[in-house]
Amino acid sequence: MTTEERNAKMKAAGIQAGSPAAKRFIRDYEEAESIQKLTDKEIKIELLKESIKQTKHSESISNNVKFFFYVALISAIFSIITALRL
Prior knowledge:
Blueprint: H1 3-12, H2 20-85
């Protein structure tokens, strides 16, 4: 929220600029805004952590698929070599 928006809300609430009520309103607004920024940062951090977990899980699955592919390939080659010897 910009200063103009804050002043418009104060005016709509009937709070005069420079009054003790205006000072409380501004202080409360600044505290709420700083809490919201912190909350946004925490959310972004949690999303980043979850994304990293999913990436590691995908890499693990990919490695497992590669392993079984190579095992199947070696097994097929071994079977072909064995069949040719007969």
